[in-house]
């Protein structure tokens, strides 16, 4: 590409930068799209760029595959019931170590490799995520649900110029620890921060009316259309918690929620800094 | 250009943004490159973009052609001696009206059309530019030279998020007004602000060893090479005050000074946000 | 006058200073009372003094006679319809140049001659005055009416110790410029700033029941008495927009509005720092 | 006096206000000039006015006559040796009660009657004046000399808009209390505050070459001339500690020290806000 | 006591410190418990400690016995009617001198002996306590009642790390001074500061159902039980204004009011930093 | 213990609180003294108490035993050479997970159980610890040495009221991670923070001239005596890096360094809040 075209592209990014500057965007970075180091680099580059142009970026990450793989090394099987990991005390220790110690700090490290300032937090720090045992049909051990979000430590980080990276581990009243679904965690944090946008980086192109056919991708989805899609059985599997989180986020005041394909290079810039976007926007 | 390329271009701008973010850049916007409305739009777009990504932009403008044209309407001839306008009291009034009232506020207006915040100032405001009658061989009337720069009002503007746009009209000890060469004005302001960079938007491609041949453009010029160029008679005419200003600016602590072609679309982004740049960088 | 009397006068100014200290006063300085340099000096001296004792001074100026005189030099006639200047594009340029470039910066310069700090602004700066084409019976070109006042740039100036001097030129949604009646402009700014007082410096002694007879000056006028005066046909000509502005200002929360004779030396101090005042106070 | 003259006087005070605005002036208000209630009113009025126009006023007061009078009521004689009060423990209690409890708070009360904000302090508050027993030829009991001045509490008061009124009672290392000469106290506080001016309100016209003849008043006195005056025996009695304090204050960085006649109505304004002044200025 | 026990005691104080940290506690230090120097030392030590661990301490003091004793030295009798001192002008002077000059500054001095920072104030300073003549059956001279409390000067002191010590002398509209009951004064200040707690240091163990029998001490008293105690005639004499003040304080938003025995060493720590407390807590 | 003794103990802690209030103390909490949950509770209680009374507490922790135990579960042996763990990439991952994910966040959690505010950090966060590969005789893999400490993120945490808890994992220039000796880490952080004190919580009573005989404990050790002790072979084994760190810390400006027995209940309070202390103080 020649220089003039480069300059033109940069120049045309102005309205997008102006649109998001000073706003808060919470990004869920799923474990399933963290495996490819090159793609990871694209995501991190974009996060640092967005922070750099004045957007308040908050990252919530998952890490399921890394937990499963470490459990396997310890000869422990991963058991999932309705998409939730059965979490006994030993598993909880591994969840904590892998998420808060490894995945989290590795992301912080990568952000700093790209010249950003970052801080790795979890729900324990500053009592950020207060939780209790999740009320489920089956006892899944230390699977919890968030009761309250204390945003002080996140806001301090943002004001001081850091990108906070947050693991979905929470603490109970008596200091007991809980494994929280990262999607829910993301929407709760977005709502508490009164964020403008919520973005899920996933391993699908977005919401599709036929999950086997990418051409059925729905670009925009109004809140009121979702009920019908549920009825028509168009929302299934792992997409359910994501869409539920999007809906609840919007009902809590978030302006729009985006489900996009984290496997596309620079998917964040494509979604936010171009007219059409690449995934599904719910508003 | 397809979306992926756009995203790639944006992503690759990160190191440049990081390089200039939080730094001060003083830009001389010459009257000779303000005539084409479309080019003017490109320049303003780039200024707003640069401010938006965290660069402290200060604009000093000229406006010679507009002064001459207004004088003509008043049936007054423009007289230049050694490149300086002969400025009797009546001319000084026109200089003041055209620069501070028209060219200045029109630039402010344009910046706001592009979504930026701007304020139009001259050397009178906040006693910013203190001057005295220039000591020249001939008496040119109210042609002055700067004695002192008070940066308070500029710094206030920057801190509050505005792009200050400055006319090169200064005030003397007793309130008499002076017409100041805008190039000199620019370097004095840059030096007083301890700016990192100084950029001259001109109507030539940069410093050329043969002014008739653009292919002789010198991309980089070290301070120590300039003396030799003067000796070899390679620097002539209107380029002399620009290069002199660049040299003095660098000697006052400015890191690099750039002379670029304001007629090239997005010349500012091309110079700062790409590896090679398009004009001459003196350092 | 001997020293003891001087001291006594100063000492007795205390309650007046205490009354206005920390309050905001918006002063309309009309073009008709700017012609005498000595009187101008008195006004400026008083403005700087008032700022100095802690009053937040904001000056809005007119400049009609200067515009007409410059138009004449350009062989263009001034046309007024119902007291409003017919403003085609060429006239608008002159309005802008004369007000923002000459009258405005000359006032700033004078304030600094008296040791004050000042900044010259117009409605374009910081998008201060948002306007649209005035809805009038006849098309008067670029005559506008204010839609919104953004006080940020005025408040910044006050907080940093400057006296903002404001030209009544405003900008439209798309950057088109408008000529605004300076009286209306003054009251809109006073209302937006939640000023305590509004003062019109005019070339008449104040509101008079018989305009030919200064002894019929009305010192105080309650809002409720004005309707009757209109009915009795006692308010006429150029006094109408001033009184209308005063009434609207008071209805917007300004405590009192004063119409005083700018031709009386130190009229501002006489009005504010003595028991009786010299003009008409509306409250 | 007619209104126009009043306005003229006020207008002409501008350069004086500009000269002292933002500066710190420490004023010693001697007990001997506190007896006439009307004169006291003039002094307080002027203090509040000066504070009101932006001067940082600090008052240090004496109160010898009031101490003596209260001691007399308790059937205790006042004994003076070399101008210093013999201060046994019982006397110290009375000094403390009369100065800190009565004279001090009465001044604060008066200042508030005139619409000022004031706070009554002594050297005990905030450990402001650290002292030790004075090393004198004779043991005078609790007569002390200042070892250190902690300005924090004074500066806090000034910043919050109060006029601090200070009694010359100090505390020793172990909490023992000392009676300090108020003149010395004043200069030490002025020096610690890096005050611009120091003013002694006394019951004489100023420094006179012949104390019996007011016409021998010396208006200005340079530091270097004082040694000669001492040699010529022109400085005597109660003037000695005052002049010594002035000299030391100036050597500590105070710009000028003034000895003026507190019995003249509005003496402070006369000294500071007129060309000639009324007493003696040492610089 | 051995070191391990000391450490255990300190460690166990944590929940109490956490309970009161950042809260405001107003303490009435009565003149009757100021006589024993050793006990005074314990009280001061505890005040400084409490301030040191982050509690905002405000002290209001009495001083009746010292006033009476000084009046006696002046051959003036103390006359009390219904527990209030008959206060003619001469007595008012003595009240002012003894409270503001002696008792107040001596407490400040003691606090500084223990390493605290303190400032001695009365109702005159910063116009803190606005009062009028009390409406009583008999004319008691300058006995006043509080009309308004201006907390600015108290809050400034707290924020700057000082313990304000306050004498119960107030000022009227015209600067006349009033002697205020210190108990009432304390509750008014507590209410104005929205204090969390109010503590009366008295010379009795607390509220007793039989004042002659300490074993009838009531540890906790709910607001609703007090009416009944009044009816049963269990509250008498000097306890009446204290309980009335407690009740009004709680009705004004203070969380709990405590009446404790100032003659018990470290009574403040015993009341606040132990489970049971030593006096009566009303809530 | 009865209440009066409790109050006495608390009261007597005042001078110690005053001594450390507002100062920074860096505490190395070694893995060897973290095993007993009850002792851990005592340490945490004391940390929160110290923070609560205004001491800026920073905790650096080890965790060797937990690393070894987790490696064992993964069937990996721990290899130590000269007291340093051989750290290949797989081991580094475990070090990171166990320290940053488990030990660190568990300490944060405990602090919050005791009512404190805490944040868990490592050298990656905010690029806090910049390191390079340690230059050792043998290649030990990712064992690093600190090149630079960026204190911004620690200072932010302290100012916002948090106890920062820090894992000794650092990052290299290119994002590679290093295992750092926690003792060295502690002293480097203490030096960078210009801390007043450095405390090592160890599993020995302190420095003993005969390590087998606790009665040979040296209570105080001057810097100049240490060289002699080395010569006399009195400092051995694990004590060497601790004493070296103490010496270097003091040479960098830390006032005193303490080696104390973390197995003694409330050892921190015993060392800091009593006259004698329990371990060895080096100064």
Describe the structure.
Chains A, B, C, D, E, F: Its main location: cytoplasm. Chains A, B, C, D, E, F: It is an enzyme of class 2 (transferase). The structure is a homohexamer of 283-residue chains. The first copy, chain A, is α/β, with parallel strands linked by helices and 283 residues long. The first copy, chain A, has a single domain, classed as 3-Layer(aba) Sandwich (Carbamate kinase). Chain A contains ten helices and 14 strands. Chain A is globular and about 60 Å long. Chain A binds chain F through residues 70, 73-74, 93, 96-102, 104-105, 108-110, 112-113, 117-122, 124-127, 152-153, 156, 160, 162, 169, 171, 174-175, 177, and chain F through 70, 73-74, 93, 96-102, 104-105, 108-110, 112-113, 117-122, 124-127, 152-153, 156, 160, 162, 169, 171, 174-175, 177.
Would you spell out the secondary-structure blueprint of this structure?
The structure is a homohexamer of 283-residue chains.
Chain A: H1 3-12, H2 14-20, E1 24-29, H3 37-52, E2 56-61, H4 64-73, E3 80-81, E4 84-85, H5 89-113, E5 118-122, E6 129-133, E7 144-149, H6 152-159, E8 163-167, E9 169-171, E10 177-179, H7 182-192, E11 197-202, E12 220-221, H8 223-231, H9 239-251, E13 256-261, H10 267-272, E14 280-282
Parallel strand pairs in A: 1-2, 1-11, 2-8, 5-8, 11-13, 12-14
Antiparallel strand pairs in A: 3-4, 6-7, 9-10, 13-14
Helix pairs in contact in A: 4-5, 7-9
